[in-house]
Amino acid sequence: MGEILIRGAEVIVTMDGTRRELKGADLLLRDGQIAAVGPRLESTGEVVEAKGCVVTPGLVNTHHHLYQTLTRAVPGGQDALLFGWLQTLYPIWAKMGPEEIRVSAQVGLAELALTGCTTSSDHLYMYPNGARLEDTIHAAAELGLRFHPTRGAMSIGESDGGLPPDSLVEREDAILNDCIRVVDAFHDAGEGSMCRVGIAPCSPFSVSRELMRDAALLARDKGVMLHTHLAENDEDISYSLEQFGCRPGQYAEDLGWTGEDVWHAHCVKLDAGEIDLFARTKTGVAHCPCSNCRLGSGIAPVRQMRDAGVKVALGVDGSASNDAGSLIGEARMAMLLQRVQNGADAMAAREALEIATLGGAQVLGRPDCGVIAPGKRADVAIWDVSGLEAAGAWDPVAALVLCGPPKVKHLFVEGRQVVRDGQVVTIDLPRVIETQNRLAARLMG
Ligand SMILES: [Zn+2]
């Protein structure tokens, strides 16, 4: 791979140790890494003009269920709380197979790419009709996004008092064996890795205590990360108190689910003791503000978490509970919700942008990403602030979160261009959308 010179940016937002913002600067990408950042750089390679643009590190999405792009705005799930919403959607999801999983992943990841995301996690916890984790891994590789797929699972079906239908749950020994298979086949622990696999039983209410414990042991043995849903809403807390006799934080701690190799989605209902536990153990949080609004789950105590030193990142969550997948939109919503809760000075636009970039890289254990500095991976989002949305803005960096634009002009991942002039260039997106709509029609069937 050669060099790419990004020239004459209005501002480069570095997210480095002193959060430097460089006006009128250039950025040189070489062999998948950032080679240099500063004024008047030179290169014999390709030149990308960034006049009128803000350049940021690529955004990092730490929670998604990509397959759900096939079940957006489903009438029966539009106005339900979490448990009722799940019960409406499970039977539809049970009809999916490998093609649905692959195509829906491309749609979800393309949507993320266009909204500034260069690294995404995914939480796939059901494998109906022969679907496998690699259906999503291949989709991400084709599009060119850095991918952290997690091998999710559900094992307690309706007949055992669980929430999902029996057809969507798996035997626990089969789950653990498939976790081993996908980690061995696809996990790359190296610097600049484009694929890191995690282990991710769906939630405390859909798997057994034993599986939670065994998953943690396996993840530590393999040196991979752990992910699940935790403390999402009041129903979730009640379930934990009734079934396990303790709050979710205690449950997680008892089963090995705290530590810097663990991140939990939502955490809307963490109490002060749990926030302290997460800070002490360096456990990460994927904050999903739009999903929390959509399902009426509440406002996560992000201000308190950040002040206590908890690592917080953003997630769009699945497209059945958002139903959009705009990562820059999540940054804006995260900022707005903290202000609803704590006042107008509770979160600045720049802090929201930091959570969306550096915060995500920290939660996913990626010190090689999330910062624009020599030696870091060449994951870069270029936002054109010379157009309509930011017209009249006095502060182009804050404008990204306060005004827009809602989509990137260019996006580079590992130095490879994924979005050019607002269009995805690595896959035939119109055709993917057409296939997705055909598959959705079949599910509605
Ligand atoms: Zn989720």
So how many helices?
14
Query: What number is the mean pLDDT?
Result: 97
Number of strands: 19
Strand order of the largest sheet: 3-2-7-16-17-18-19
Helix content: 25-40%
Distance between the termini: 46 Å
Write the layout of secondary structure elements.
Layout: E1 3-7, E2 11-13, E3 21-23, E4 26-30, E5 33-38, E6 46-49, E7 53-57, E8 59-61, H1 82-93, H2 98-114, E9 117-124, H3 133-143, E10 146-153, H4 172-186, E11 198-201, H5 209-222, E12 226-230, H6 234-244, H7 248-254, E13 262-266, H8 272-281, E14 284-287, H9 289-294, H10 302-308, E15 311-314, H11 327-342, H12 349-363, E16 380-384, H13 396-402, E17 410-413, E18 416-420, E19 423-424, H14 429-444
Parallel strand pairs: 1-6, 2-7, 8-9, 9-10, 10-11, 12-13, 13-14, 14-15
Antiparallel strand pairs: 1-4, 2-3, 4-5, 7-16, 16-17, 17-18, 18-19
Bound molecules: zinc ion.
Descriptive report:
- With 445 residues, the chain is α/β, with parallel strands linked by helices.
- The chain has 14 helices and 19 strands.
- The protein has a 7-stranded mixed sheet with strand order 3-2-7-16-17-18-19, covered by helices on one side. Strands 5-4-1-6 form a 4-stranded mixed sheet, with no helix packed on it. Strands 8-9-10-11 form a 4-stranded parallel sheet.
- The radius of gyration is 21 Å and the shape is globular.
- The model has no long low-confidence stretch (mean pLDDT 97).
- It binds zinc ion (ZN).
- Zinc ion (ZN) is lined by residues 63, 65, 123, 229, 265, 317-318.
